[in-house]
């Protein structure tokens, strides 16, 4: 894309995109670390995820400030305007994803050692897919890649199927092993958090698609087939 | 060119395959566009893109420029304005114009407005003329500010008031189309806002076309925007679309400040 005649405008846009990328990178790490803490029963790592979340919130505030400044001082138009609005909406979503990662991390100390709960084995795979969706949506924003954004949206159903499978498995497991109900409830919330992360990645990808093309993706069915 | 709206009624003005030459130099290339009462149309583009030249062809202001030549059809209510039978003075009453620099006559405020109606024989009596002057000044949003000093010189008004006086002068002869060539570029933001509000109020009653270098102004006052570049109409469409999602790269580069 050609540069703006006013160089400072390009610098501000680049700074904005840099902040979004940094925030996205931190959230991806938060999710990975939260899942690693869960699998490895690593309470220290879980605590670090919780404390690092504050930096994500600060980045969101910084982006919001910069967006307001750019709109007020530069009056962006067309693709610039769409970029700036997308950045504002994306950081809101990324912040939410950070909260879900933090929420997962907070449950780690309460779970204790639980090698016996078999459905747990599905959670890392589910989180892997959701995490990749988040990463791809962020990469699509960075590269203004509408095709990559579309591919993220198309993958949401994978996370949903994971969730439905884990939901059923945990219910069955709880019925058969009532002593594990408290732990299983935690795992169920974790699965739900990951499912929501997938939804948020999808929303982010839709915004990226709009920013890149100026058009909206065709409306998906709002009934996502989630069982609960 | 992308979206071309097709109104059911014939357009107030229509240009079809218009070319304009200044001597050997072609200033406008094959421009087709319609202007109608229900929307204000803004012509935007870099200096020298032909937007003002095109605006001036719409009431034959270019006739006075030596070597200027217009090809193609420009119609007002279906009538070709370049037809030899067209009365140019009459045409310019029907298609009024407001210029960049306010240019009131060195006469009283009253006479600035009354001049046109007088020469076009629109008033039968002094009382008629008083009604026309008041009505034009009211529609120009100037009445309350000048009603007690109609005998004062028009040139004694502030720049913004002078420009509204010029709009009132254009309105007084009951035009059908009003062409504005950068009407606010010499005005401060408050005076500009008043003109923009006036444009908003005049919409529907008159077909309005405005040339502006101020993109925000085009976005604020128009419902349709036409982007000119190197004498061609690059893109024409709904203003909100042009400024959020232009289809042509040249439009995008211009409105986002990436041009040249």
From TrEMBL, chain A:
Pfam families in UniProt: PhoU
NCBIfam families on file: phoU_full
Keyword terms, alphabetized: Cytoplasm, Phosphate transport, Transport
Could you read off the lineage of the organism from its UniProt record? Answer: Bacteria, Pseudomonadati, Pseudomonadota, Alphaproteobacteria, Sphingomonadales
Give an example GO cellular component term for this record. cytoplasm
Q: Which family does it belong to?
A: Belongs to the PhoU family.
What GO biological process terms are annotated to this protein in UniProt? intracellular phosphate ion homeostasis; negative regulation of phosphate metabolic process; phosphate ion transport
Location in the cell reads: Cytoplasm
Task: Determine if Cytoplasm is one of this entry's keywords.
Answer: yes
According to UniProt, the name of this protein is: Phosphate-specific transport system accessory protein PhoU
Briefly, what is this protein's role? Plays a role in the regulation of phosphate uptake.
- Domain called PhoU: residue spans: 21-108, 125-208
**Predominant location of this chain?**
cytoplasm
Q: Does the record's keyword annotation contain Transport? A: yes
- Do you know which InterPro entries this protein is assigned to? PhoU, PhoU-like_sf, PhoU_dom
Q: How does it assemble?
A: Homodimer.
UniProtKB/TrEMBL annotation, chain B:
Q: Does the keyword DNA-binding apply?
A: no
Q: What InterPro entries does UniProt report for this protein, alphabetically?
A: AAA+_ATPase, ABC_transporter-like_ATP-bd, ABC_transporter-like_CS, P-loop_NTPase, PstB-like
Q: Where is the ABC transporter domain?
A: 13-255
Which Pfam families does the UniProt record give?
ABC_tran
Keyword annotations: ATP-binding, Nucleotide-binding, Phosphate transport, Transport
GO terms for cellular component = membrane
Concerning SUPFAM superfamilies, the annotation shows:
P-loop containing nucleoside triphosphate hydrolases
PANTHER family registered for this protein in UniProt: ABC TRANSPORTER I FAMILY MEMBER 17 (PTHR43423)
UniProt protein name: Phosphate transport system ATP-binding protein
Q: Which organism is it from?
A: Sphingobium jiangsuense
Upper classification of the source organism reads: Bacteria, Pseudomonadati, Pseudomonadota, Alphaproteobacteria, Sphingomonadales
